[in-house]
């Protein structure tokens, strides 16, 4: 409480006439800024993280319910969710992350009327993206067999994927709607909707699996119902209660759509290279001996790690909003301080998660399986899980900074080199050649993640934030327009020269 009073008393001393922080002198001023930025971060990040944790809870509860049907069902649903579901969600989230950059910077610059246009444009792009992903769902079983997975697992996983196609289409509405709200820090409603949908999902799973005895089919049906419940609830809130940003449907959303696709693809490649990296370890583990136990134990570890990752995806979204808003307002120091403080706090949380996992390692898998073999296998992997949690605490923050700043393509190249040229080959060598099995696979991929984190941390340290502000202003001039005529004409989109965006 005292810190809040101190920060209020000295706030005017830290802020210059341009609204940005003045240069900091002394530990006391650092502490005040640390407190101010912490409050701003968690005011946005807390509800977003809670909403994303609720969304992940839908996945995790589904795995838990199906896991108690048997070890085969656990492994099959984990394969379907981690390979097919993660592949698709990563791609859709990436294609929607361009909206995060543009809406955040437009909101920071006061061009709120453009948010609805950008959101509609993103919905069109994501709808076509779902059509591109459909063959993966339709041919899930032969694709998983092609990757060398066991026959029984692939049949169940393929059936679940095929039945859950309607949920895929819900992402074309849910992802843009959530980015629209996040960019304006209207995140409390996302948390409320996410929590209610999670409760609905848990109830329907119990009803369809244990009361109606529909098994895997019931789980897929519930997935579709709650996916669309979430999407419709968010979209209704956008069009009814966000009249300043959503001014109705407009044909301007179709203008220069290819240039928007370019930024969307850059975002998708960056996030997909990250998301698919950890997904690939599940596929590679399917080639090991005793694949059911190997995949099952690793899936449980990935599920537990996913809870922490979802928390940091919330922080990722929050720092993305903070960076894009501050850049849009022309505040380089505020951007830099926000990034550094967020990275420091995230690292502390990651270390605490690692300690917790190591302390309770013998009891980690009780919620997911009754199999003693699986429980022992999970306990043996706990130390790798702990290291992964520490690295995953920093990496999403860096990605959020990249999205907020609009330099996704640079991060994509770094991800490609660290993950797929270094990490996966090293993991395969340790797992298959050196016969360390799943420990070798996971260890090699952790090395790739560590390399990527070190490189991007150095890149962020060397960033010229004043230059980033200039590039943000240029991007908004080209994409959103800054002349009065554009702001008065809601149906006009001055983004005529998008193809000439600076890198």
TrEMBL record:
Pfam short name (any one): MatE
Bilayer disposition of the protein: Multi-pass membrane protein
Subcellular localization: Membrane
Transmembrane regions: 48-71, 83-103, 124-144, 156-175, 187-209, 221-242, 263-285, 291-319, 339-361, 381-404, 411-433, 439-461
Source organism, top-level taxon: Eukaryota
Keywords: Membrane, Transmembrane, Transmembrane helix
CDD domains: MATE_eukaryotic
Entry similarity comment: Belongs to the multi antimicrobial extrusion (MATE) (TC 2.A.66.1) family.
Protein name: Protein DETOXIFICATION
Gene: LOC107013098
């Amino acid at each position: 409480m005292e810190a809040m009073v101190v920060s209020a008393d000295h706030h005017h001393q830290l802020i210059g006439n341009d609204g940005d922080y003045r240069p900091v002198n002394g530990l006391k001023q650092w502490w005040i800024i640390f407190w101010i930025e912490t409050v701003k971060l968690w005011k946005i990040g807390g509800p977003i993280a809670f909403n994303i944790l609720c969304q992940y809870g839908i996945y995790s509860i589904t795995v838990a319910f199906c896991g108690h049907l048997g070890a085969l069902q656990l492994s099959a649903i984990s394969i379907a969710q981690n390979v097919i579901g993660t592949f698709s969600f990563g791609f859709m989230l990436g294609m929607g992350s361009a909206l995060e950059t543009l809406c955040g910077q437009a909101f920071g610059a006061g061009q709120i009327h453009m948010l609805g246009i950008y959101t509609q444009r993103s919905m069109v792009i994501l709808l076509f993206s779902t059509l591109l992903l459909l063959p993966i769902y339709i041919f899930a079983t032969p694709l998983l067999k092609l990757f060398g997975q066991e026959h029984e697992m692939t049949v169940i996983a393929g059936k679940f994927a095929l039945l859950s196609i309607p949920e895929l289409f819900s992402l074309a509405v849910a992802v843009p709607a959530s980015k629209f709200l996040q960019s304006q820090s209207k995140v409390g409603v996302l948390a409320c909707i996410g929590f209610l949908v999670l409760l609905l999902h848990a109830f329907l799973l119990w009803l369809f699996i244990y009361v109606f005895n529909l098994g895997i089919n019931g789980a897929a049906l519930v997935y579709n119902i709650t996916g669309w419940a979430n999407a419709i609830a968010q979209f209704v809130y956008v069009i009814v209660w966000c009249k300043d940003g959503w001014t109705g449907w407009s044909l301007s959303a179709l203008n220069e759509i290819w240039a928007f696709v370019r930024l969307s693809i850059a975002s998708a490649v960056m996030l997909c290279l990250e998301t698919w990296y950890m997904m690939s370890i599940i596929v590679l583990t399917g080639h090991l001996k005793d694949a059911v136990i190997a995949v099952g134990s690793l899936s449980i570890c990935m599920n537990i790690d996913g809870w922490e990752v979802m928390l940091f995806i919330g922080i990722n979204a929050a720092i993305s909003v903070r960076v894009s808003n501050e850049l849009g307002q022309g505040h380089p120091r505020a951007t830099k301080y926000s990034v550094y403080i967020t990275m420091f706090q995230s690292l502390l949380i990651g270390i605490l998660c690692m300690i917790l996992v190591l302390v309770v390692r013998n009891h980690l898998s009780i919620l997911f399986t009754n199999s003693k073999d699986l429980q022992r296998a999970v306990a043996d992997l706990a130390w790798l899980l702990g290291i992964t949690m520490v690295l995953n605490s920093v990496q999403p923050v860096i990605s959020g900074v990249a999205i907020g700043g609009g330099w996704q393509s640079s991060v994509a190249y770094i991800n490609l080199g660290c993950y797929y040229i270094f990490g996966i080959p090293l993991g395969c060598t340790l797992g298959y050649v050196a016969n360390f099995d799943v420990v070798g696979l996971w260890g090699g991929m952790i090395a790739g993640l560590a390399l990527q984190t070190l490189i991007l941390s150095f890149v962020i340290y060397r960033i010229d934030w004043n230059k980033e502000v200039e590039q943000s202003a240029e991007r908004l001039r080209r994409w959103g327009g800054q002349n009065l005529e554009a702001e008065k004409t809601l149906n006009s989109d001055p983004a005529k020269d998008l193809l000439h965006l600076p890198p």
